Amino acid sequence: MNLEDALLLHFELKLELRTAMLEGRQLDAAQIGDCCGCELGRWLQDEGRISCARYPAYQQLLENHREFHLEAARVAELINQGQFDAAREALAVGPSRYSQLSSAVGSGIAELRKRLFQQFSG
Asked: Which residue ranges does the record assign to the Chemoreceptor zinc-binding domain (predicted)?
């Protein structure tokens, strides 16, 4: 799996949430909340677990990724309920839990990429 592609897909989720908010479109919050439903989640549960479970960064990424999907599902529910101001606030850059978890997932992916590079280049 290409970890950079996985990171891009998670960033695109924010765009999907914002677009749904602008269009007043309903989202499948259960699907969004399923951390094993995306490519990164499947990799973390399978190949990533096999090759990276010994790294503390793996455990942290696993938890942050799960929490990220739960928070994204919460935002999707706000959108579905028409609570657009609350959804906008929940997606705000910086102080929002969504933003913090998104950054944590990005940092975790970067750390695992570094560990994997060291593992296979050494």
From this structure: 10-75
**Matching residue, tokens 């942050």:** 64
Q: How far, in whole angstroms, is CA 38 from its chain's centroid? A: 9
Contact 71, 101 (CB under 8 A): yes
Fold of 3-121: Four Helix Bundle (Hemerythrin (Met), subunit A) (1.20.120)
Domain boundaries, the chain: 3-121
Q: Report how far apart the first and last C-alpha atoms of the chain are (Å, whole number).
A: 20
Q: What is the pLDDT along the chain (122 residues), one digit of tens a residue?
A: 788 888 888 889 999 999 999 999 999 999 999 999 999 999 999 999 998 999 999 999 999 999 999 999 999 999 999 999 999 999 998 889 999 999 999 999 999 988 888 877 75
> What are the structure tokens assigned to 11, written together?
């960033």
